[in-house]
Amino acid sequence: MSPTSAGRGRSAQGGSSASSGFTCTECGQQTLKWHGRCPECQAWGTLAEAARPRSPLRRVGAVSGPPAVAARPIAEIDATSARPRATGVPELDRVLGGGLVPGAVVLLAGEPGVGKSTLLLSAAQAWAAAGGGRVLVVTGEESTSQVRLRAGRMGTLHPDLFLAAESELGAVLGHLDQVQPRLLIVDSVQTIAAGDVDGTAGGVTQVRAVAAELTAVAKERDIACVLVGHVTKDGAIAGPRVLEHLVDVVLHFEGDRHSSLRVVRGVKNRFGPSDEVGCFEMVTDGIVGLADPSGLFLTGRSVPIPGTATTVALHGRRPLPVEVQALLTPSSGEAGRRTVSGLDNARTAMTLAVVQRWGGVRLAQQDVLTATVGGARVTEPGADLAVALAVWSSARDIPLPAGLVVLGELGLSGDVRPVAGVERRLAEMRRLGFDRAIVPVSTGGSRATGRSSARLRVEGMRIQEVADLGEALQSFGDGTIDWRSRRGS
């Protein structure tokens, strides 16, 4: 075969690859070449061959005639219809930013069996009972009789609550025309399929098409829509990443199977704060909100023990106290293990390095275990000082004083940096009976003296402001390190 004909053969074979590509079944990323690992989501073996129709580049001109809705000055637009309407579940309304906005689409994701359907069934009944209008619940995973039994057990029956078991998008739209609801709940979006779209239900193409259609219908008819989403084994929302961009609000429903505590955490919210949390408790006949969950994350022991420290995390506008525990044991090998539960792994590793370097605690041949109480998850930097003092307390076998709360972010040089909302956090801890606090030096204070020009004041609480880890340890009588001489101050 001549080089020319061989080139034509390769061109003919390459023509099919030019008109086809590969799509990741996890995140929807499209590539021209096959990879064993998706370049976007790093998942293995998820690239499948898919047709890539050619679309020639062309100029897009304006449509004939004026637009259907003319552009207006922003101040003349009425925003009354976009105000949130309470669902009747206060903890859920807190995370949503006041309630559900007509025309908005909410994605609620969580692990199987965590209680997503139970929460939304309770919210649907509360919405109908408060006069919010008809509610249509579309279930694609259970039969109507199964949902009816759960609703009867929960006491969530209402004349304005309608139920349908469908897995086809056209049928769902037909129920919308018939019922005319003000709230639509789809459980779940991965079980609904569009007949005119290739692929099976739950696939990237189907999920994208179904979500886009339901979003368009919700905004066209001013219907509040809640979509239930599945999560992968890594905790990420299953389906294409574009799903999170299509919706207005993304909520994560979290909880441990061995605990009755459930937490709704905001991840994205176009109508309110995106870092709020709502606390719930699973009970025999359903789920109830916890307006004051402070006691769930504290052990409540009367006598302090070594290796524990109490801090308070700020979730949105809600301060939640958290007890941090640490345990040091001799390692069986040369390198000690590091086990973390409820805390950020990277920040905990950094804190342990700071404690070893600037706190005089030897961790080389020690197994270090750190955890939070009650299944709380704390990732903010304000818990660094509490983790450091819990590790120091366990290493020295010295309990921290009762009624003490600790706040502060640790820098790699051992300095304690300020955190947001200190006064609000301390006021909550004083309400719970804490009478002493160790906090960072206030803004504008003197790092040389460790005191600020405008001291924090919380009635009934003794507040100690520290500039670095050494000052915090010296307040407990640890004189093993001359911190100021090491700093040259």
TrEMBL record:
Which region ranges are annotated with the description Lon-protease-like?
Answer: 367-489
A Pfam family it matches: AAA_25
Ranges spanned by the short sequence motif RadA KNRFG motif, renumbered to the chain: 268-272
Alphabetic keyword roster: ATP-binding, DNA damage, DNA repair, DNA-binding, Hydrolase, Metal-binding, Nucleotide-binding, Stress response, Zinc, Zinc-finger
According to the UniProt entry, its GO molecular function terms are: ATP binding; ATP-dependent DNA damage sensor activity; damaged DNA binding; hydrolase activity; zinc ion binding
CC annotations in GO: cytosol
Single GO BP term: recombinational repair
Query: What are the Low complexity biased-composition ranges?
Result: 1-21
Read off the PROSITE patterns from this record: RECA_2 (PS50162)
Among InterPro entries, the record links this protein to:
AAA+_ATPase, DNA_repair_RadA, P-loop_NTPase, RecA_ATP-bd, Ribosomal_Su5_D2-typ_SF, Ribsml_uS5_D2-typ_fold_subgr, Rubredoxin_2
Domain (RecA family profile): give its ranges: 81-231
Q: Where does ATP bind?
A: 110-117
Ranges for region Disordered: 1-22
According to its UniProt entry, what is the function of this protein?
Answer: DNA-dependent ATPase involved in processing of recombination intermediates, plays a role in repairing DNA breaks. Stimulates the branch migration of RecA-mediated strand transfer reactions, allowing the 3' invading strand to extend heteroduplex DNA faster. Binds ssDNA in the presence of ADP but not other nucleotides, has ATPase activity that is stimulated by ssDNA and various branched DNA structures, but inhibited by SSB. Does not have RecA's homology-searching function. Plays a role in repairing double-strand DNA breaks, probably involving stabilizing or processing branched DNA or blocked replication forks.
Name the protein family: Belongs to the RecA family. RadA subfamily.
| Free-text note on domains in this protein's UniProt record | The middle region has homology to RecA with ATPase motifs including the RadA KNRFG motif, while the C-terminus is homologous to Lon protease.
What is this protein identified as?
DNA repair protein RadA
The organism encoding this protein is Nakamurella flava
